[in-house]
Amino acid sequence: MTKQLTPISWQNETVPTQLENIVHMATAKDPDERYQSAKELAEDLGRLLDGSSVLAPAYRYRLDMSEIKASRPRSVLVLSIFLFSWVPQLGIGFLVTLFNQLNGFRSNDFETLSTLVLTFVGVLLCPLVGWGLLAGRLWSQWCSVLLCGITGFFFLTFWPPIMNVSKLSYDSLILYTLLWALGLVLLFCATLPFRGSASVWFRLAHQRRQEHKAHTKRR
């Protein structure tokens, strides 16, 4: 055996607990934890049939996160890296805005306050959601959609009406175009956790955790 087996009761809940313990002791990853002879296995099966307590200890399955990580789709990894990359940018934006506010470079108080709040929340949420994506947490799917979707829509609203484009300077037009393009990229990223294999992977990771939790409670 190269890795720990999942509890057989996950496939069939009617399997008696003592029989499950015998099976998993016989197939333990560590040879020292197995039955040392066929006679010991036969004697324990005999106890099971007689209705006595078996010698096999209760099976303690540890959730193997490496299996979940190994099957992680590339799109999820890309999105999580993208969110992590926003942390230093948002942090710098927060510090610059705070510095300007403390040194008397006041603009619109409401805009300054909203910028401080949004950047601070972004610094906290981006790494949290990025970690959740890497771990296959279902809540991180929706949080990433909210983060990318709202931010993408926010950037798209910077794009001026078509009728005013001719009045913009060349530099402003380039800036608005870049913001608009970034908004589209963010909206696309918001769909990544729900596309193809990524959506299936999140469901399987959640199912594996729920099965492990139920198995632990039964013990």
Q: Could you please describe the fold and organization of this structure?
A:
The protein is an all-alpha fold and 219 residues long. The protein folds into two domains: 8-62, no CATH class; 71-204, no CATH class. 67% of the residues lie in helices and 0% in strands. The longest helix is centred in the middle third of the chain and has 29 residues, at 74-102.
Core attributes:
mainly alpha; 8 helices; 219 residues; 2 domains
Summarize the structure.
By secondary structure, the chain is mainly alpha-helical. It is built from eight helices and no strands.
Determine the strand fraction and express it as a percent band: under 5%
What is the share of helical residues?
A: 55-70%
Mean pLDDT across residues: 76
Gyration radius (Cα, Å) is 27 Å
Low-confidence stretches: none
What structural category do the secondary elements indicate?
mainly alpha
Tally of DSSP helical segments: 8
The number of distinct β-strands equals 0
Largest β-sheet summary: none
Name the shape in a single word: elongated
Instruction: List the domain count as a whole number.
Output: 2
Series of secondary-structure elements, N-terminal to C-terminal: HHHHHHHH
